[in-house]
Amino acid sequence: MKRERMLQIFLVALGILFIALIYPLCADLWHANWLVKTHNETEPMFLSFFIALGPFLLLAARNPSEHRLLIAFTAWWNLAHAGVMGVETVQAWNRGVHRNFADVVIVAAIGLILLGLSPSRRAQGTVG
Fold first, then answer.
1. What is the per-residue pLDDT for 38?
2. Taking the CB of residue 96, how many other CB atoms lie within 10 A of it?
3. Among residues 41, 46, 49, 47, which one has the least CA distance to residue 25?
4. pLDDT value at position 90?
5. Per-residue pLDDT tens digits for 65-115
6. Three-class SS of the chain
7. Interval 24-39: pLDDT, tens
8. Number of neighbours of residue 64 by Cβ within 10 angstroms
9. Can you give the pTM of this predicted structure?
10. Residue 53, Cβ density class (10 Å: 0-12 exposed, 13-18 middle, ≥19 buried)
11. Rounded to an integer, what distance in angstroms lies between the CA atom of residue 31 and that of residue 102?
């Protein structure tokens, strides 16, 4: 029961955090920073995905055992994303460009926490 409560709290916090990314997305789009300054159209697309996932994580927090697949998807997506960012960071360093590993660690931690707290299949049958 304690594990499920911790998962609920984490899902709410993560959902709110993901929804809050709407501010940097809107600012980026409003000022065309992705085009003018960073020349990186992928960042707004990633932010939009996080933002769209946020409300569903909030809904999943109500009864995590009913939303096992969404939680698993979010966990594995974050781990895959951290893996790609890790490779990009190593490649950047090998080419003399300093890139911080903090975002890689944060995204990997999100995935690992979700996997660690994720409800088991047995828990799905016991919740009624």
1. 76
2. 6
3. 47
4. 96
5. 999 999 999 999 999 999 999 999 999 999 999 999 999 999 999 999 999
6. CHHHHHHHHHHHHHHHHHHHCHHHHHHHHHCCHHHHCCCCCHHHHHHHHHHHHHHHHHHHHHCHHHHHHHHHHHHHHHHHHHHHHHHHHHHHHHCCCCCCCHHHHHHHHHHHHHHHHCCCHHHHHHCC
7. 888 888 888 777 787 7
8. 25
9. 0.85
10. buried
11. 26
Residue 38 backbone dihedrals phi, psi, to 5 degrees: -90, -20
- Nearest one of 83, 65, 75, 77 to 115, comparing CA atoms: 75
Count how many residues are written for the chain: 128
State the residue for tokens 């950047």: 92
71, 115 in Cβ contact below 8 A?
no
Instruction: In whole angstroms, give the CA distance from residue 19 to residue 56.
Output: 10
Of 61, 74, 70, the closest CA to residue 107 belongs to 74
Which pLDDT score is estimated for 30?
Answer: 86
Contact of 40 with 34, CB cutoff 8 Å: yes
